[in-house]
Q: What sequence folds into this?
């Protein structure tokens, strides 16, 4: 992060850091839709210090999108809009954008090339792989603390706009400290690799839990859902949306508490999904699990996900815990996405009669996965504050 514009993003108070990150995401969303938003419109109520920091974060986003459409501006044009900007920094930024094709062709380290050590962490063993990258068990060399170290997919680390977004998003994620959210400890870049260090949860994710134990009784499933809802209520209160709530991102620890993984970071791995549902990720099949839990409006444009999208996904998780299978599923990713958008909302009572699920619980589920976001709970608070029933 550059500091010559009057401070850095990480120097801001927590609430202002979250606010500017939200503004940057909203600005990028408009650009991705082919619009031409004005940076100035996102800065009107910011202090002078916040204004300069936000400018530094938003300009690289605008420069990249303008470059993609052959509508880039030169140094003189940008300085006429923002005379306070350091011209040398701006010249370097524009040069990097022009050389983007060269950077994109850089060598991307293969999984077998991952070193034995990254930063202060010794890598012990791989734990799994997802849309964002590969997760390893690692140990801090001095503190001897076991952690989960996630190395982002190589192509994400090469893209300049993704690097800056990574910085903002991990700063925001580091502010989320809650018993039902996996804590983010550290993040960095080494030898072209972007990595995130989080709390290591000694347990299993809910997908593995159902696979080994079988479908859960509705009382146990509801307790798990309430845990997740409580964590989401806290995160949503800080304007952080998950965007990828699914069983594999929900970890059950040894005490029986469910913790949310990758809170607020999912968009780093999912933004490639376009309006027609096609992307490099869908072609490789790596988001099949995600599609089974994704709200219809999010599948159309994943960047528009809000609290109600997380609620929809949580409802789909509830169904999976009860049945051992997704609520909607097709033979392909696109079939699954279309099923979420077009098939009728099911009733738990009719689909799972042996569970003897109370009518009230069935009504909660159906409201969570309503097709229209306006028909769902307006916030997760209505779910999180419900009394738990039954034993884990």
A:
């Amino acid at each position: 992060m550059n500091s010559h514009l009057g401070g850095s993003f990480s120097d801001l108070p927590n609430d202002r850091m979250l606010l500017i990150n939200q503004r940057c995401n909203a600005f990028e969303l408009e650009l991705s839709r082919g619009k031409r938003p004005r940076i100035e419109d996102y800065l009107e109520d910011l202090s002078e210090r916040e204004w300069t920091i936000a400018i530094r974060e938003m300009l690289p986003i605008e420069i990249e999108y303008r470059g993609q459409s052959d509508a880039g501006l030169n140094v003189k044009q940008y300085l006429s809009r923002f005379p306070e900007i350091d011209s040398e920094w701006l010249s370097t930024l524009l040069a990097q954008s022009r050389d983007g094709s060269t950077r994109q062709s850089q060598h991307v380290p293969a999984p077998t090339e991952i070193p034995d050590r990254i930063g202060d962490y010794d890598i012990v063993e791989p734990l799994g792989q997802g849309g964002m990258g590969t997760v390893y068990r690692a140990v801090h060399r001095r503190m001897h603390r076991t952690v989960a170290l996630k190395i982002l997919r190589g192509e994400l680390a090469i893209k300049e706009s993704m690097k800056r977004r990574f910085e903002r998003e991990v700063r925001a994620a580091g502010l989320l400290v809650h018993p039902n959210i996996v804590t983010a400890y550290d993040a960095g870049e080494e030898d072209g690799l972007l990595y995130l260090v989080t709390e290591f949860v000694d347990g299993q994710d809910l997908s593995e839990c159902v696979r080994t134990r079988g479908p859960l009784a509705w009382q146990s499933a509801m307790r798990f859902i309430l845990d997740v809802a409580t964590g989401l209520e806290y995160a949503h209160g800080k304007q952080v949306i998950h965007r990828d709530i699914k069983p594999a991102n929900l970890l059950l620890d040894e005490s029986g508490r469910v913790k949310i993984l990758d809170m607020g970071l999912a968009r780093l791995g999912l933004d490639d999904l376009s309006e027609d549902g096609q992307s490099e990720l869908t072609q490789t099949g790596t988001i099949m699990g995600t599609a089974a839990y994704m709200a219809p409006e999010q599948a159309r444009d994943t960047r528009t996900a809000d609290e109600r999208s997380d609620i929809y996904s949580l409802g789909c998780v509830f169904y999976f815990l009860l049945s051992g299978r997704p609520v909607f599923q097709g033979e392909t990713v696109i079939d699954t996405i279309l099923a979420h958008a077009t098939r009728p909302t099911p009733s738990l009572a009719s689909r799972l009669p042996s569970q003897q699920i109370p009518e009230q619980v069935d009504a909660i589920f159906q409201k969570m996965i309503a097709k229209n976001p306006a028909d769902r709970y307006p916030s997760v608070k209505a779910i999180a504050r419900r009394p738990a029933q039954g034993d884990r």
